[in-house]
Amino acid sequence: MVWRERDMTEQALVTEAPAPAKAVTMPDAQTVTAVAHYTDRLFSFRCTRPASMRFRSGEFVMIGLMGDPDPATGKQKPLLRAYSIASPSWDEELEFYSIKVQDGPLTSKLQHIKVGDEIILRPKPVGTLVHDALLPGKRIWFFATGTGFAPFASLLREPQTYEDYDEVIITHTCREVGELTYGRDLIESLKTDELLNEVIGEGFWKKIKYYPTTTREESAKMGRITDLMRSGEAFADLGVPQINPETDRAMVCGNLAFNLEIKEMLEGYGLEEGANSKPAQYVVEKAFLD
Ligand SMILES: Cc1cc2nc3c(=O)[nH]c(=O)nc-3n(C[C@H](O)[C@H](O)[C@H](O)COP(=O)(O)OP(=O)(O)OC[C@H]3O[C@@H](n4cnc5c(N)ncnc54)[C@H](O)[C@@H]3O)c2cc1C
Ligand SMILES: NC(=O)c1ccc[n+]([C@@H]2O[C@H](COP(=O)([O-])OP(=O)(O)OC[C@H]3O[C@@H](n4cnc5c(N)ncnc54)[C@H](OP(=O)(O)O)[C@@H]3O)[C@@H](O)[C@H]2O)c1
Questions:
Q1: Which of 59, 78, 107, 196 could pair with 125 as two cysteines, CB 3.0-4.6 Å apart?
Q2: Hey, what CATH class is 15-125 in?
Q3: Cβ of residue 290 lying under 6 Å from some atom of ligand 1
Q4: For residue 87, which of 31, 154, 24 has the smallest C-alpha distance?
Q5: pTM flag (> 0.90)
Q6: Ligand 1: does its nearest atom lie under 6 Å from the Cβ of 111?
Q7: What would the CATH number be for the domain defined by 131-286?
Q8: Using one digit for the tens of pLDDT, what is the confidence trace for 37-75?
């Protein structure tokens, strides 16, 4: 099936224009087609996708920019970092959701990209947050903190998510309310997404239960998801029983401490960790390296 490209949510969109024809000047260059900023620490962008690039929704790739010239030789090397692909596997373009680290080697520069600029993309996707790594179940949980939402932005737009599960629960814990915007807008946009409603089935989005929480700014639901699960509050709010290995599957993407804590909790509920080579009941991936 051929899918056509759709716009990002109007509210978030800052700049968008057709990718201009431009000579390729970098290795593995792709052209930026849209950029949206959410907070002083978060932005997203879209870029062209290599025609031959295939990936599974939930995987990550290496992307980047050319680094500064070496003072001695004047040579420039690519400066690459791992990034979850936030767009689904069927999308004609690629989307990324990014942090802005003010002194970060890559994102101090990447945050300034504009439509028409080029980025480097190594088209070799890998990762554990894929449906292939899970056994069938009734309910899938996506647990994210911060930019860990990115792989789920892909999986929430992946038809297989709704073919495989009756219920899709996405939890997103951030420090501040503004850090929820990208995820909230994306989930809201699914309701009016004509293409997905036609292909997956009218009202497919009703399978989604969205559970955003903040920890350092007042919002409708405060607290870390881990604490809210331990107390039983999250299950009561969502109207679902406690996680169990018969019915529930989980994918986790957040900071290292979060991943370790959730992993321990999931194992406490009786779930076993899966992998591409050995599907089981939950999978984990780091949203960043510390
Ligand atoms: C498997 C994997 C997937 C990733 N996917 C994404 C993604 O989709 N979006 C994304 O923004 N980053 C993602 N990252 C992190 C990314 O690789 C870079 O670390 C990030 O772009 C910052 O790069 P930098 O060179 O500016 O700073 P770095 O030197 O890489 O990082 C500097 C410091 O910034 C903090 N930091 C880095 N990344 C983040 C983050 N995402 N959220 C909060 N704090 C952070 C850490 O404390 C880190 O020590 C991923 C990392 C891994 C391992
Ligand atoms: N977000 C900001 O406004 C901000 C601003 C400047 C600098 N930074 C720096 O950027 C880095 C990343 O910050 P971030 O906010 O993107 O990511 P983060 O520190 O990973 O926090 C994201 C969310 O995850 C929660 N969390 C952390 N550990 C957890 C655990 N073990 N179990 C459950 N939930 C957990 C946090 O709650 P808690 O709030 O309870 O930790 C927060 O709500 C940090 O080094 C930070 O100092 C962040």
A1: 59
A2: mainly beta
A3: yes
A4: 154
A5: yes
A6: no
A7: 3.40.50.80
A8: 999 999 999 999 999 999 999 999 999 999 989 999 998
* Ligand 2 near 145 CB (within 6 A): yes
- Where does CATH 3.40.50.80 sit in the chain? 131-286
Q: Which atom of ligand 2 is nearest to the CA of 147?
A: 16
**Nearest ligand, measured from the Cα of 152:** 1
CATH 2.40.30.10 occupies which residues in the chain? 15-125
Distance in angstroms between the alpha carbons of the first and the last residue of the chain: 40
CB 146 within 8 A of CB 99: yes
Check whether 6 has a pLDDT greater than 50: no
d(C-alpha 92, C-alpha 226), whole Å: 36
**Given ligand 2 and candidates 39, 40, 182, 215, which is best to mutate, with the most ligand atoms within 8 Å of its CB?**
215
DSSP-based three-state secondary structure for 7 = coil
